[in-house]
Sequence to fold (169 residues):
Amino acid sequence: MKLEREALMHYLDASFKKTPATAEWAVLGDDIEEMSVELNPDTEQKRTILGKTVTTDNGYAPSMSADPFYADPASKLYPKIREIAFNRLKGEACKTLMLEVIVEDTAAEKHLAYVQEVMVKPQSYGGDTTGVNIPFDVTDDGERTKGYVTAESLKSGNPVFAAGEIVAA
Fold:
């Protein structure tokens, strides 16, 4: 059976403190109908004089767009997104953590998760009569750590990340 889209969740640390233990996770997805992590693979192929094809693999440059992101003063994430956009912040001021969780088995007590340091960059602000929109891009900018979140913490709306492998009971 295929996974429904809601099985893959993306959270940003709204505190922008870059520490998983104190993160204030805000789930992305309100008002968004489609969102994907673009892996942006970086490969290059050359054909040698001997007629062989050689591929150089430089890895990935992942990115994701959160569009739309409507300005909502009740949102944990909104004040920082507004600050970055309106004050034209750059560098460290735009860095936070992203938590990715995939729920492959709803009966499991722990779910695979990754924490990644990311750069958050608003692309524009304004919009139409639907509301003030501040769409932003998220790009990887640091180490990626594999771990898990408990089903209980996920259901509470406050996922708690633990680094390491999920050990079968």
Notes: The two ends are 24 Å apart (CA to CA). The longest strand covers residues 136-150.
